[in-house]
Structures are given as structure tokens and as C-alpha cells.
Design goal:
Blueprint (H helix, E strand, L loop, with lengths): L1 H16 L3 H22 L4 H14 L2 H6 L8 H16 L3 H10 L23 H22 L8 H15 L3 E4 L3 H16 L6 E4 L2 H10 L6 H8 L16 H11 L5 H12 L4 H8 L2 E6 L9 E3 L9 H4 L1
Parallel strand pairs: 1-2, 2-3
Antiparallel strand pairs: 3-4
Helix pairs in contact: 2-3, 5-6, 5-7, 6-7, 6-8, 9-10
GO molecular function: triacylglycerol lipase activity
GO biological process, one term: triglyceride metabolic process
GO cellular component, one term: membrane
């Protein structure tokens, strides 16, 4: 009798969804696995752990099918294909002059609108394979150009000319930078971002910050590569109560009194001492000479009609970093 009821139940489900019992079990297994992967992504402690889960999720959700197709209203695939073909032809033929011309004139960060944020919302990791292929080919073209120059196969072009053209291309293309916003709670998030990028060897040389973000990037940009691993392991466990001494937290009445007297809710004297202990009396120029990283700190102006100032080793080489923070 029980078997008959089970058979009747399976038959009813099959009639409703058109799936066999085995297919339903497979679908349920996939859904369970997806829930596990989503939980792992949420609690991932490293980029590699997050990346492996994202790749598997894209496979389970069939997002790779979207990546493999060319067509989309969110960018111009024909233009990307055309530029890709030009780069590949020049690289395969080892045409130094042609490669140099393309690198100098054709590279663009938003070619065919491929930086459109919508292109990166269809999957957990990556975007259209065509875009990935174009970026890889552009990098390979530059590497081939440099390799041919090193082996003196420059089609009669002087090495200095090639170097000048590559530097001009970099100037026109622009350089990636890491920007940290303000907000006390964001400070801990910024440290996690830095740690993940450092472990992936993807941290840009140019780092900028404001408010809490300036504290994080200032501490990071004053440490050498040898000092960074220990810093990143201990920094997140440090004391971030920068406005009050431990055990001497102020109440709202004290803060209101200070605001009425000085126009500020918080006492910055303890902040100055804490930041100075972290950074010492190091200037922007000294930090750049020590680490070769370009630290930028945005400082609000004193007057309402003045523009904010961006301090770095060029605009304010002799300014103490702790005072800017």
C-alpha cells in the first residue's frame, strides 16, 4: 500500500514538472550545493577561496553560456573583435612598428563600453570571454614588443624611441589607483581589501584615502614590502579607538560642550597622538622614497569657497603625513 502511494506521488510530481524522480533529485542536489557555495562566499577569508566558489557557482547556474556568447546590448562586440584582430595580426607577424602604433593609439579603458558595470552583473566572476581575450591579447602584445626590443629586433627603431612611445601610451591610458572612502566602519573593510589585493599581488602603486580611509592608506604606504605581511596580520587587531583613551569615553554632554566651544564633537588630540605613534614624523616625500608607493590624502579646505586639497609627494613633499591625516 505504501509503495502504491509513493508511486502515485512520484507520478503526480512528474505530471506537474515533467521531470523524473532522478532528475528531481539531481536538481535538489544542485540547489543544495548552490546554497552551500553562497554561504562559503559570504564567509570566505581569502580571495582564492571566494574565487573557487564563484567559478563553481557560475558553472552550476549556467552563467558561462552567457560569457561565451558575443552579443549584448551593453557593449559593442564588433568593435572589440576588430581591435582584437588588429592586435593579434601585429603580434603574430612580429611587426614592431604596427604593435607600437596600436599600443600608442588604440588602447582604451572603456573600448566599446566594455567597462560598463552591467557587463559584470551576469556572473559571479568575470565577464564576456571576448573582453577577457582582448585584455589578455593587449598584455601579450606589449610583452612581445618589449621582448623583441630586448633582442634587438626593432625594425630599425631606436630603443629610446620605443621607450618614449610606451611611456606616452601609459600616460594617455592612465594608471589604476586604489581609493578608500571615509567612514569609521569602512576602516576595517579597507584593511581586508588591502590584504586580499596584497596576497593576489594586485595592489596599485597609487593609493588615496579620505577620513578613515586616509588612516589605513597612510599606514600601508609607509611600510616596505618586507614589513607588510606582519602589518596586515596585526593591523586588523590593533586599537582603533583613536578619538578617546581606553576607559575614558566621553558622554554626549562633554561632546556637546566641546562643540559649542570649539565647533567639534570629538577631541582630535588623542587622534593626533595615535596616528603619530603609527607613522612617526615621516613626510610624503620620505614615504615615497622608502616604499615607492604614491600616497594621496584628500584634505578639506578651511573655507566654504575653497576647493579640497590633494596632498602627495609632488604637491606637498615636506608635509608630515600624520598632520594630513
Amino acid at each position: 500500500m505504501k509503495d502504491s502511494w509513493n508511486w502515485a506521488g512520484h507520478s503526480l510530481y512528474s505530471y506537474r514538472d515533467g521531470l523524473s524522480e532522478e532528475q528531481r533529485k539531481k536538481r535538489a542536489g544542485i540547489e543544495d550545493r548552490k546554497q552551500v557555495l553562497y554561504l562559503k562566499i559570504k564567509n570566505a577569508v581569502s580571495y582564492e577561496e571566494w574565487r573557487s566558489c564563484a567559478i563553481e557557482l557560475d558553472e552550476l547556474e549556467n552563467n558561462n553560456a552567457w560569457k561565451q556568447t558575443l552579443e549584448s546590448t551593453e557593449y559593442d562586440p564588433r568593435l572589440v573583435q576588430d581591435r582584437l584582430r588588429q592586435l593579434e595580426d601585429a603580434r603574430i607577424s612580429c611587426d614592431v612598428s604596427r604593435m607600437l602604433f596600436l599600443v600608442r593609439t588604440a588602447l582604451s579603458r572603456d573600448l566599446a563600453h566594455m567597462s560598463n558595470a552591467s557587463l559584470y552583473r551576469h556572473s559571479h566572476i568575470g565577464t564576456k570571454n571576448l573582453i577577457d581575450r582582448y585584455i589578455t591579447t593587449a598584455l601579450e602584445t606589449i610583452a612581445t614588443l618589449v621582448d623583441l626590443s630586448v633582442h634587438d629586433r626593432c625594425d630599425g627603431l631606436e630603443l629610446k624611441y620605443i621607450l618614449d612611445q610606451l611611456l606616452a601610451a601609459r600616460q594617455a591610458f592612465g594608471r589604476s589607483a586604489l581609493l578608500f572612502s571615509g567612514g569609521a566602519t569602512f576602516g576595517m573593510t579597507h584593511i581586508g581589501v588591502l590584504k586580499a589585493l596584497y596576497e593576489a599581488k594586485m595592489i596599485p602603486r597609487i593609493i588615496s584615502g579620505a577620513s578613515a580611509g586616509s588612516i589605513v592608506c597612510a599606514v600601508f604606504c609607509t611600510r616596505t614590502d618586507e614589513e607588510l605581511p606582519a602589518l596586515l596580520d596585526t593591523y586588523i587587531h590593533g586599537d582603533f579607538a583613536v578619538f578617546n583613551k581606553k576607559g575614558q569615553e566621553e558622554n554626549i554632554l562633554q561632546k556637546m560642550t566641546r562643540f559649542l566651544k570649539f565647533g567639534s564633537f570629538l577631541d582630535i588630540s588623542h587622534l593626533a597622538k595615535t596616528i603619530r605613534n603609527w607613522l612617526g614624523d615621516m613626510t610624503f616625500q620620505e614615504a615615497y622614497n622608502r616604499t615607492r608607493r604614491i600616497l594621496n590624502i584628500c584634505v578639506s579646505s578651511a573655507g566654504m569657497y575653497e576647493l579640497p586639497r590633494l596632498l602627495n609627494y609632488i604637491s606637498a613633499p615636506n608635509v608630515l603625513i600624520w598632520s594630513a591625516v
